[in-house]
Amino acid sequence: MAVALDGHRGGRHFALFKPDCCLSQFVLNGTVTLRAHRRLLSSLPSCAELPAGIMAVGRLNEDSEGLLLLTTDGALSYAVTAGGCEKEYHAQLEGIVGVEALERLRAGVDIHHKGDTYRTLPCEVAALPAPPALPPRRKKVRDSRQLRDGTIVAVPTTWVSIVLRQGRNRQIRKMTAEVGHPTLRLVRVRVGDTLLGDMAPGELRPWDPGTRTAMTDNGTPPPATCC
User: I want to staple 73 with a disulfide (CB 3.0 to 4.6 A). Which of 11, 91, 117, 187 is the partner?
Assistant: First the structure.
């Protein structure tokens, strides 16, 4: 079922390239503290003069990067997060990811959160033919490992595309760890039909919700942090 956005065209809407080491929130709440190198969205120069009532549409984990939609319209935010909207990620995984691991990710794996076990829904997963053209991140990706004898060796990695229509806490990171390939870098490149494109980390652009047509309702619960 398509999610109607025409009734949510009021308010103001933006697309942000959220950098790493940044929380997906504008103010601190009682359960979060700012550690070293941790930032709020309000600390980004591009977000310094956003309108009152602005909120993130869903969340990206502190260490994850990429497309984060912002709006002053709470009903629109709920329509996007609760409506089974497609979200595409490019993930750099540790090791050489084989066909079996890709098939397991596509079919669904068991992940855990606060003592409960969840089976992820089937999703689209494909190995990328080459690393995507992404800007450097603030925190360096771990690309080497020290052996017991002190030798430093390079860690081989594989880039994959993952498309989800659900989102549980740190879902992609838990999924890839479950199949033996921890996520080293995670970048959201698409929400519905809205693309990250050539945006730079910290860049803010206007977002027109009317351009989003790939939203479907599959009956899944509203997402928490999707990565």
Answer: 11
Report residue 75 as tokens. Answer: 């009903």
Give the closest residue to 42 by CA, choosing from 60, 19, 25, 18. 25
pTM of the model: 0.84
CA gap 157, 85 in Å, rounded: 29
6-211 belongs to which CATH class? alpha beta
| Size of the chain in residues | 227
How confident is the model over 170-217, as pLDDT tens digits? 999 999 999 999 999 999 999 999 999 999 999 999 998 876 433 333
> How far is it, in rounded angstroms, from Cα 68 to Cα 60?
7
CB contact burial 21-44 (16+ within 10 A = b; e otherwise):
ebbbebeeeeeeeeeeeebbbeeb
Q: Work out whether the CA dihedral 75, 12, 80, 74 comes out positive or negative.
A: negative
> What type of residue is 30?
G
DSSP string, 41-66: GGGSGGGTTPPTT-EESSB--TT-EE
Looking at residue 139, what is its pLDDT?
Answer: 86
Return the percent helix, strand and coil in the chain, to nearest 5. 15, 30, 50
* Distance (Å) of CA 211 to CA 2, 192, 194, 214: 13, 9, 7, 9
Closest alpha carbon to 180 in 63, 94, 89: 94
Tokens of 135: 């800007």
At 81, which helix (H) or strand (E)?
Answer: helix 74-82
**What is the C-alpha to C-alpha distance for residues 83 and 93, in angstroms, rounded to an integer?**
28
Is the separation of the CB atoms in 162 and 123 below 8 Å?
A: yes
